[in-house]
Amino acid sequence: MIAKIIVLPGDGIGTEVTKEAVKVLRAVAGKFGHVFSFEEHPFGGASIDSHGIPLTEATLAACKGSSAILLGAVGGPRWDNRPVDIRPERGLLRLRKELGLYANLRPVQVHPALAGSSPLKERLLKDVDLVVVRELTGGLYFGTPRYTREEGGTVKSVDTLEYTRIEIARVVDLAFKLAGKRKRKVTSVDKANVLETSRLWRTTATEISASYPGITLEHMLVDTAAMRLVSAPASFDVVVTENMFGDILTDEASVLAGSMGMLPSASLGDGGPGLFEPIHGSAPDIAGRGLANPVGAILSAAMLLRHSLGREEEACAVESAVYATIAAGVRTPDLGGSQTTEEVGARIVQSIN
What we know:
globular; ten-stranded mixed sheet; alpha/beta; 20% strand; Isopropylmalate Dehydrogenase; single chain; 353 residues; two-stranded antiparallel ribbon; 2 domains
């Protein structure tokens, strides 16, 4: 059976890192006897430049008909002055919503060879292995109404933070299922001392936990979680939280791994294709210079193999090749190395073959 993979290179370094991830997937197909087809579509700023909108109906249809989607990164200063609904990021929000991708998985592991690349003390990084499960289709990013207007001489802006119990329950339930295969601990992050939606979040998480008696649930305020991520990161197993908190906390967690370029992510729903992307942005300041770290995109390809194609052995092979490459000192400048994006990608492909 042919697995159809839609590639959305996006903007900036997105085109560079997805290129290396596709090379790795081709190597996996060759070694394990699979057939993967790749179909590339403009997305984000690139789609605005060519079609006037960040996500076309043709691209959306192709994504819906695929086995999985591999995304680079979107956005950049050149599109910042566009109307809000025609910015690159709006295309990404719509794609997640249209595909029902309500859960974003962001694993954070620290390779021993990179412990010195983190600003944290090495003793704090020992045994760090956590997954953040971020709710992806609700909260402030999708709230209505949203507006800015002048009222009585005062400029007023409104964004709406809204969650339903169903939206919370499904992502929390997924977090418990993941924890059952790991260290059996879930940390639910909220701001229940201030926000009504967080009080609903905390109540719902407690209710869901009753179905998983062998798994520990702890509630934690987001400010405490932000502090503990850098003071005791090894204390976490599975962290589940709402959309904006998850967005911020996972960027903070990237310092544990030594570089934002190291972290992958998977956006999943109840069936249908998943969306896989590194957590970093389009980094226009280094685009086209061969400086981008492709590891996050390549590890995202490993998650694609695992979660959308059901290929655990192949996913492990990619991860092992990445770790062997890092251990050998083959790294991009963000990790203190001197290799280019393509050179790191080529070494990982070589390790797979």
